[in-house]
Amino acid sequence: MKNLAIVCFTLFISLGASAQSRKYISQFSHLQGYYNPGLTAYEGSMVKGFVRNQWAGWEGAPKTYFVSAELDFADLGGYGDLGKNAIGVNLLSDEYGAFRETELILSYSTRVRVSELAGVRLGAGVNFNQIRLDGNNLTTEQANDPTVGQYIGGFANLSIVDFNLGLSLTHPNYYFSYGMHNVNQGSFSKGDMFISKKPMVSIAQAGYRNAISDQLSVIFNTMWRSQNNLPDNLEFNMKFMFYEKFWVGAGHRVDYANSAQLGMLMGKMRFGYVYEWPTLKSYLLPNPTHEFMLSIRLFEGSENIW
Question: Are 14 and 6 contacting, i.e. CB atoms less than 8 angstroms apart?
Fold first, then answer.
């Protein structure tokens, strides 16, 4: 079993060399603005961060770090057209095998009210991507790849500038959104070209929240992602919020992993934890994944807890 796990991990890293790894985040429902610029500051002005340690205990296993800041101009007392806008900064660092990827996204959104409670949000983002290849950590499989094999024993760097777009329909009880990452497919790049093209990613998200009583709310979220060089990704989670103070829940990434989730609200601060384990049919390493999330609301006022 251990040898099988090593082989599977090697194949996973080899896939990352040719197509960039897909970033899995179990608490995706708390990071709508990262996936869709149209949802920037949807939860209000906040600072967020998380750490994801995948397959804990294995050397070279993927690790993801994320921090963001989002500002809704309405929280600054902006009225008229100014109060309908929001801006955000997202910084993600991902380590997977021989690769280290840093992603900086500057996003902007504006909204138009279509009913008393519902609104349409449009957004755009600029994505600055820096990928570093450490040739000392290449696997045997990667050494046979003519594209990355030439960097064995050395380092390579690739910089890419691209664009994200997003559209969403939002309501205090639900939202639907569709976004695209890498719209220009990595055409603006410089450095060592060990990745020839960055695929465009389509992302659809939806969420629903209903207060059953003063003590209990039910929250459901789902996300679907598609790109031409990887299988489609579908995941969802369901949480039960008690007394607007803490939640418990479960999630599933189809053909990939299951997760147990819990979190607490402490004034302006929100803390979440996820314990994730792979499904038997995924052929992934059996080690668990730990994910910690912390967010801080910058101003008093209502917020959506998704």
Answer: no
